[in-house]
Amino acid sequence: xxxxxxxxxxxxxxxxxxxxxxxxxxxxxxxxxxxxxxxxxxxxxxxxxxxxxxxxxxxxxxxxxxxxxxxxxxxxxxxxxxxxxxxxxxxxxxxxxxxxxxxxxxxxxxxxxxxxxxxxxxxxxxxxxxxxxxxxxxxxxxxxxxxxxxxxxxxxxxxxxxxxxxxx
Length: 168
Hints:
This protein is globular.
């Protein structure tokens, strides 16, 4: 173990440090991302999204994570497909049990039931899954917004105009 310890990647600060260490550069601020997520909030009834997500987790991931109801609609609708895509073809259920999810500062935080206390600064399978999921959900901090979302935010959120095209 070396003297330089990375922050815990399950924390927001740790995840941002992990992404920076992997050379992923933020494309927007958490405030701009939150505005983009709000644009998609009413595309499908929330009760339907929650039902679909709970069904997926109970049938394919053993149990339903705490905090699932707090996820933005677009992330909630895509999370089952993204997670299912990380499995090996022969797996009938996901072998990693997500105990909790939360959105914090533009990051989808994921807590795994089997994750142990971190020793050292190596990137674990849990960290890799966090990276894959956070890069796969759209919109996210590390992928440019669609032109449609940019235009909508430009017109609806005057307070965010200066952040829309800032370099992060």
